[in-house]
Amino acid sequence: MSGDWLRVARGEAPLILCFPHGGTAIPEALAARFVSPWLARKDADWWIEALYGFGAELGATTIATDISRSVIDMNRDPSGASLYPGQATTELCPTTSFDGEPLYRGDPPGADEIERRKATWFALYHAAIEAEIARLRAVHPAVVVYDCHSIRSHVPRLFDGELPQFNIGTNSGRSCAPALADAVEAVCAASGFGHVRDGRFKGGWTTRHYGRPEAGVHAIQMELACRGYMTEPASPDESNWPSPLDADPAILPTLRQAIAAVLDFAKGRP
Question: Mean pLDDT over residues 12-22, rounded?
């Protein structure tokens, strides 16, 4: 696989948009080990970069990986510790889909292989985030790392019922200033769509690791239910998933307002 799997587009605003799960690339050497290419890509955060495409216009820096999360999940604790103890989740190098389907035909990756994948992809992705935080923090009193995610509205193994449209994660208030979380939540509440703050998704490794509000680095995660920007089939299969990005996503105006609120916070505007 070529070395263009990691893409960093620098902006000058005090905002970094991260896309850890939008990729679908599977290295040729690994492809035959998966049950199917579709299953290995099923849980991608479909079309998430395109949905936030307006961020570049606002001067945001974007950091994205093309590597499928089934190869290695850029938003898991690299030690392998669960971010949600006692709850169903997937691993740093997932062995199942969100629905519990086995991903591998034979043995899943062992400890040595996981370490190689960490060195090849995980470490470089996070080195890019660290470098961009340092660059922007040198010229701004505050920087926001906004982690962009999406998931199907119904995944019974992970949560009951239908997921709210907007799921704001702040590691239970530890990863960012309350004013930032309040501003984003106010936008979501005014939208008329369902929302929750620090519900099922409180923020993954990116939010928890980089959020240091006392040092001027604020991190927040937004997990979107896919129904807000694409059609969700009742039973996703290889014939109907993923569906295309909606031509006029219903949640796009709210996302624009949320990012505007984030920038206002980062720039010290009330």
Answer: 98
CA distances (Å), origin 40, targets 23, 85, 96, 256: 11, 24, 9, 31
Please give the C-alpha separations between residue 18 and each of 9, 52, 157, in angstroms, as whole numbers.
11, 10, 26
Contact 84, 213 (CB under 8 A): no
Three-state SS string over the chain comes to CCCCCEEEECCCCCEEEEECCCCCECCHHHHCCECCHHHHHCCCCCCHHHHCHHHHHHCCEEEEECECCCCCCCCCCCCCCCCCCCCCCCCCCCCECCCCCECECCCCCCHHHHHHHHHHHHHHHHHHHHHHHHHHHCCCCCEEEEEEEEECCCCCCCCCCCCCCEEEECCCCCCCCHHHHHHHHHHHHHCCCCEEECCCCCCCHHHHHHCEHHHCEEEEEEEEEHHHCECCCCCCCCCCCCCCECCCCCCHHHHHHHHHHHHHHHCCCC
71-103 pLDDT per residue, tens: 999 999 999 999 999 998 999 999 999 999 999
